[in-house]
Specification:
About 20% of the residues lie in helices and about 35% in strands. The chain is of the alpha+beta class. The protein has two domains: about 130 residues, Diaminopimelate Epimerase, Chain A, domain 1 (Roll); about 150 residues, Roll (Diaminopimelate Epimerase, Chain A, domain 1), CATH 3.10.310.10. The longest helix has 14 residues.
């Protein structure tokens, strides 16, 4: 048997039991794939980050859902670095983290806010049938057409593509009752991982917008608070000219209120100095610890799991 410290850390939340929960196993260097998969299954979070040594970066993170390895996970990256900083294992400042898809930049502020750099943003305006979009989301299509003259639907990405759908009012967004199969089909039709519906009619006066992320094609009916979607919608807003005048230096995307996991993703854009490079988008937030304990894992050669 092998024991490891294991935590549940709530990314993009001010207080525990909010935001988006991620598992964190801080000393995972010697764990096998099957042990990491078993730990993720036991913790039950959508993703668990396993902290390991790295050659090209300051540390390596591997991510597992309860069933599969995931190449990259923004909220688990935030959770892992917030925990390591809180423990004194890493200092505030600039860091690099190796994942299955490459090396990424991370910044940790002295106050414990973790910022993660996304890929260069892309935004492609599309023209879907709004009746189909409304039916998939369970939203009156009139609520989409009301803003459609000024704000288009688009596929936006800073690493993971979303079909970004503007909605006129928070009340309409709150009434959404998605058809999971229809949402998955809609996202697939546009090469997106999911659908991110948003409105500028936010709950908190300091928030820029309110969003809901639906990713049934990835096994997540509704994600509580989504860093990749927040980065995507921030890139969308800048590209389509959603703001009067210059866009704000920091966009605050609130999410999770309709699933009782409220949180805020802070987003800032870093513009390239010259050339055609579009720069990158940083997503950040706090991540308090909700659960801290020890997990006993079976030896890998005798994990008790019967394969079909």
């Amino acid at each position: 048997m092998t024991e490891r410290r294991a935590l549940l850390v709530d990314a993009f939340a001010a207080e525990p039991l909010a935001g988006n929960a991620a598992g964190v196993v801080p000393a995972a260097a010697a764990l096998t794939d099957e042990q990491m998969r078993a730990a993720a299954r036991e913790l039950g979070a959508s993703e668990t980050a396993f902290v390991r040594d790295s050659g090209p970066a300051d540390r390596r993170l591997r991510f597992f859902s309860p069933t599969d390895e995931v190449d990259l996970c923004g909220h688990a990256t935030v959770a892992a670095h917030a925990h390591l900083h809180r423990e004194g294992a890493i200092e505030a400042g600039e860091h690099t983290v190796e994942t299955n898809v490459g090396v990424h930049d991370v910044e940790v502020t002295p106050e414990g806010v973790v910022w993660v750099a996304g890929e260069a943003p892309t935004v492609d305006v599309v023209d879907p049938d709004l009746d189909r979009v409304g039916a998939a989301l369970g939203v009156d299509p009139a609520a989409l057409r009301d803003v459609g003259a000024d704000l288009p639907v688009a596929v936006a990405s800073t690493g993971l593509p979303y079909l970004v759908v503007p909605v006129n009012f928070l009340s309409r967004l709150g009434e959404a009752d998605p058809d999971d199969d229809a949402v998955a089909a809609l996202a697939e039709a546009y090469g997106a991982a999911g659908v991110y519906a948003f409105t500028f009619d936010a709950v908190d006066r300091e928030a820029t917008l309110h969003g809901r992320a639906f990713l049934p094609g990835l096994g997540v009916a509704e994600d509580p608070v989504t860093g990749t979607a927040s980065g995507a919608v921030a890139a969308y807003c800048r590209t389509v000219g959603a703001f009067d005048g210059d866009p704000p230096a920091e966009i605050r995307c609130e999410q999770g209120h309709f699933v009782d996991r409220p949180g805020v993703v802070r987003v800032r854009a870093e513009t390239a100095d010259a050339g055609d490079d579009p720069g990158c988008v940083w997503t950040g937030g706090r991540a308090p610890t909700a659960l801290d304990g020890r997990l006993t894992l079976p030896a890998d050669e005798d994990d008790g799991i019967i394969e079909a």
